[in-house]
Amino acid sequence: MKELTDKDYASFIADAPLPVIIDVWADWCQPCKFLAPVLQEIAIEYDDKVIVAKLNIDEYPEVAKANGVTNIPTLLIYKDGKMAKMIIGAHEKPVLVSKLEKFLK
């Protein structure tokens, strides 16, 4: 999974050929640590359907704030360069896949 910065965030989304899931996280966040391997599995399993990236909220708070992130973990889902969905909280893989279903086709 690519680690995004405030410098490449917008261009990464704009240039993505597939829907993008951005995991907004922090090192100290226990639910974020639970979610990380779930997202890694999704990134591998659906690599031809979606791109998964990460954004550390402690390092780039202005990007998270500009996207309306108030809690972590938060997943920002972009399709065709525009935000299509926001998912707040850590979810087990089956629940998360069902929430992402329309982006994984």
How would you sum up this structure, described in words?
This protein is an alpha/beta fold. It contains four helices and five strands, in the order βαβαβαββα. The chain has a single domain (2-98), classed as 3-Layer(aba) Sandwich (Glutaredoxin), CATH 3.40.30. It is 35% helix and 26% strand. Strand 4 (74-79) and strand 5 (82-88) form a beta hairpin. The longest helix has 16 residues, at 30-45. The mean pLDDT is 95.
Which terms would index this structure?
105 residues, alpha/beta, Glutaredoxin, 5-stranded mixed β-sheet, 4 helices, 5 strands, 35% helix, globular
Q: Secondary structure elements and their pairing?
A:
Elements: E1 2-3, H1 9-15, E2 20-25, H2 30-45, E3 51-56, H3 61-66, E4 74-79, E5 82-88, H4 93-100
Parallel strand pairs: 1-3, 2-3
Antiparallel strand pairs: 2-4, 4-5
